[in-house]
Fold this protein.
Amino acid sequence: MAATLKDVAQRAGVSIKTVSNVVHGYVHVTDEVRERVQAALAELQYQPNLPARYLRTGRVGVLAFAIPELNNPYYADIGNAIIAAAATRSYTVLIDRTEGERANELLVLDGLRPHLIDGVILSPLVLEPEDLQAHRGQAPLVLLGDHLLDIDVPYDHIANSNVTAARLATTHLVALGRRRIAAIGITLAGGAGGLRRLRGYSEALAEARLPVDSHLIVQVASYNRLEGARAMQQLLALEQPPDAIFCFNDLLALGAMRALHEAGCRIPEDVAVMGFDDIEEARFAMPSLTTIAPDKQQIGELTVSFLLGRIEGMRTGPPERVEVPFRLIVRESTGGVTRIGGEITRG
């Protein structure tokens, strides 16, 4: 027979209400009690009764997470963080792919049905502000990423600290004595995240009194390894190639490193390489990749907390915009030392 909240309460030595508070992620529970209840939930293999929950609350315990693509490890990492955060509150997460197309992003907004899903986490690339205004009154929504971050939309918004992080990444390359620092990652569509990272890059060069050379800024069609390799080949063909590269994500950086290897260039002696995202592959690349590591766990926790707060009526104030912290992880591609057990980290 399936365990009930009453069974869990008896095992943990607390009230049913306290168990319910832990299951739903409410903050007014002490850490000691929360750990005791979570242990009891695990021991009894408690599973929420979703049909009963819907009849009682009008909610089904399911969230949707809509992302542009599935083959980018960054989105997989964020998805894992969101799924873990939702699971502690007894919610399931469904994943949808939009391919960064407006029609698909609109389907995410317009295709929701209250009896199938309780709320949406959306990482948009092309939606217009009026699209979100028209969505008001439907399922609760939290936005991820930089798109629409500077525009007044009626939803909570979680983003990376792209300007500050890109400034730190570029400053790190300047501190190595590099003076021709290229940037790979402005997209043909002018994505907001890339523009913010370009801004941080440009600010760091200005602070170092280095010129922003348009020949060292390369556009890409998408953020993947092949585009990184193509961009690096273009830079190596310059009369004065760069001595450092700031790639706007790790996949671009990994492609750039491959092109450098094929051209006989040494990393970091000839060209230092910097990435962004801290995907797992960055740590195990040869050489290992220096990168910016956003706090993905905090992204997952904040996103789920904000969304469930709206769903359950605990958050009723105006929407919030939060930029999560990050770390600079120095690895071999800029002269650091990498061991499987750890690496140099700079906040």
Remarks:
- Residues 5 and 20 are 7 Å apart (CA to CA).
- Residues 192-207 form the longest helix (16 residues).
- The mean pLDDT is 87.
